[in-house]
Design a protein that fits this description.
Blueprint: H1 15-48, H2 51-68, H3 71-83, H4 89-103, H5 109-128, E1 131-133, E2 136-138, H6 140-149, H7 153-187, H8 193-200, H9 205-238, H10 267-270, H11 275-285, H12 291-296, E3 310-313, E4 320-323, H13 330-347, H14 363-374, H15 380-387, H16 391-428, H17 434-446, H18 464-467, H19 473-493, H20 508-519, H21 527-535, H22 542-548
Antiparallel strand pairs: 1-2, 3-4
Helix pairs in contact: 1-2, 3-4, 5-7, 6-7, 7-8, 9-16, 11-13, 13-14, 13-20, 14-19, 15-16, 16-17, 16-19, 19-22, 20-21
The structure holds zinc ion.
The site of zinc ion (ZN) has 4 residues, from helix 13 and helix 14.
Length: 550
């Protein structure tokens, strides 16, 4: 049961609260069936791949958006917020959630149309643009393949440069898009689109700055040390000096992934197993059964079906589904554990929590739970017990996996800092010298050298600025929270000295803790309040650092 009193739910004590209560009831009556319809239609489209099914999703989504763009409703909510008369905590939370949903939909229709059209144009440019090497067209996959395997520095350089060509093609449009988004944000009373986005996501720039600054400080030395080791290997592989290493010597266009130098092929351990069965057994063992979720899910490849994976809560009444394209290998083991992490969060909300709050409190908190479970597919103790490995096999995995995990997490953390800081400054002043700004950040955070006299919009080759603006930092916050929960559960719930040998298998206390402290509350508390209630502290990077910096 939820620790907050049921008496808090939905009882109004003054005229304003009564009025709001009525508004909410009418609102839910309207949007609940619409949201379910969108959920079902999206599910249908992802499974069929038919253009007409996707058209239906767009149409239904637009209908929902229309509800939230109503200016009179927004004025009512704004007034309810400003009078300060809504004091009931749960009612006030619903007001916050509603207000934010309306706020982001208040952009004038004409301006919105310009923003959507330009975004679509850029996205289309991204998908149709073909990079060239010596006049010959190359695909993104071919570029990545060269960066992963080629040992000739000249060829690597060509591939890297080819990967950046799209940047020059779209940069002007992206800057224009940023300006349009800023114009919309200013009309709503915000400095720029970045601050508007953070506000509607209940995030505070100062708080995020503090977290990222701390993460930067805490990872500086260990990252530099790990990277020195890595650089030596990369330089050797290409027969160059460490001092000659350039951005194209890393194994992907942005150095956001771990170069495959320490990796061990874990697929062999999974190929004769059934990842669905393993996941089902594991979740049952921690007291979070997933059978009913899997029964509604679609797990295997099919012609036309979305090739990726996602989780969706259709009705907030228990119809939670995941879509996967399972194969028995390590990466799909991680993915099904990950998606089921999202799913149990959705499934195990307390149904007494009001509809508007019956969802994860933040995109990054549900991401954290998904990451928490996804990490297990490479955990030696978990693998040994679930897959019945010998001590020798486990030792072999252990030798590589912890070093790999450190490298992976640190490389990602330093890359995410670039994205967060650059995007913040991009919106604060889109007229500045963005090409130099980008390389200053890359040099500072990733310790990767700017090629001499390079002055191209290399930042613009990252599609996220267009399709998922002001979002990238949430991946990092998810990792931080996953580690904070892991630390708390290890020490305080399971009362262990360290996480060595911890596989979580059969630990029902884990499921109990997550249900009671994270899942059931939904969005009843602000995310940082929820984290404090669950772990005793607000979100902090120190446990991430403790887990991955050895
Ligand atoms: Zn996820």
């Amino acid at each position: 049961m939820l620790t907050i009193s049921v008496a808090l739910f939905g009882c109004a004590n003054n005229a304003k609260e009564t009025e709001l209560d009525k508004f909410i009831t009418a609102h839910i009556e309207k949007v609940k069936p619409m949201a379910k319809e969108v959920g079902l239609a999206s599910w249908e489209a992802a499974n069929s791949g038919k253009p007409e099914d996707y058209d239906k999703v767009s149409e239904l989504t637009l209908n929902v958006r229309r509800v939230y763009s109503n200016p009179q409703d927004f004025a009512f909510l704004k007034d309810a917020k400003e009078t300060g008369q809504v004091r009931n905590a749960v009612l006030a939370r619903q007001l916050d959630v509603l207000y934010n949903s309306y706020l982001e939909s208040q952009i004038e229709p004409q301006l919105l149309k310009k923003i959507v059209d330009l975004g679509t144009k850029i996205e289309k440019n991204f998908s149709t643009f073909r990079s060239t090497i010596d006049g010959k067209k190359v695909t993104d996959n071919e570029i990545k393949e060269i960066l992963k395997t080629e040992t000739d520095s000249g060829k690597r350089k060509q591939a890297w440069l080819a990967g950046k060509q799209v940047g020059a093609e779209v940069a002007d449009d992206i800057i224009q898009l940023v300006k349009l988004r800023n114009e919309a944000a200013k009309k709503l009373g915000f400095d720029n689109y970045h601050t508007l986005s953070l506000a509607t996501a209940e995030q505070d720039v100062k708080e995020l700055d503090r977290i990222f600054e701390q993460l930067y400080e805490l990872t500086n030395e260990p990252y530099a040390k790990l990277k020195t080791e890595l650089d030596r290997i990369l330089a050797d592989n290409c027969g160059v000096l460490v001092t000659e290493l350039m951005p194209w010597h890393y194994h992907d266009p942005f150095f956001q992934e771990t170069p495959m130098v320490y990796d061990l092929d874990l697929n062999v351990y999974y190929e004769d197993k059934d990842v669905k069965e393993l996941a089902t057994r594991f979740y049952a063992g921690i007291g979070l059964p997933v059978e009913s979720i899997l029964a509604n899910s679609d797990l295997y490849e099919r012609e036309g079906k979305n090739p990726h994976a996602f989780c969706t809560d259709i009705d907030r009444e228990g119809d939670v589904r995941i879509l996967c394209n399972l194969k028995n290998n390590e990466s799909w083991m991680e993915t099904i554990l990950h998606e089921l992490g999202h799913a149990v969060y959705d499934k195990y909300h307390d149904r007494q929590v009001p509809f508007l709050l019956r969802r994860p409190v933040h995109v990054f908190t549900t991401e954290a739970i998904a990451m928490f479970f996804g990490r297990l597919s490479r955990n030696p103790a978990w693998m040994q017990q679930m897959l019945g490995l010998t001590d020798r096999q486990r030792a072999e995995i252990e030798r590589v996996s912890s070093r790999y995990a450190q490298l992976k997490q640190l490389i990602f953390a330093r890359w995410d800092m670039v994205m967060y800081n650059f995007e913040k400054q991009l919106y604060a002043n889109p007229g500045q010298d963005l090409n130099s700004l980008w390389w200053r950040m890359v040099e500072k955070c990733q310790l990767v050298k700017r090629p001499q006299s390079r002055n191209e919009p290399d930042w613009a080759a990252k599609i996220h600025f267009t399709i998922a603006p002001c979002y990238y930092h949430n991946y990092m916050l998810g990792e931080l929270l996953a580690s904070q929960l892991h630390n708390h559960i290890t020490g305080k719930i399971l009362k262990l000295e360290s996480d060595e040998n911890l596989s979580y298998i059969g630990r029902r206390e884990l499921g109990g803790f997550l249900r009671e402290k994270v899942f059931e509350a939904g969005a009843v508390y602000h995310w940082n309040e929820m984290i404090k209630r669950a772990t005793g502290e607000h979100l902090t990077p120190k446990y991430f650092v403790g887990q991955f910096v050895k």
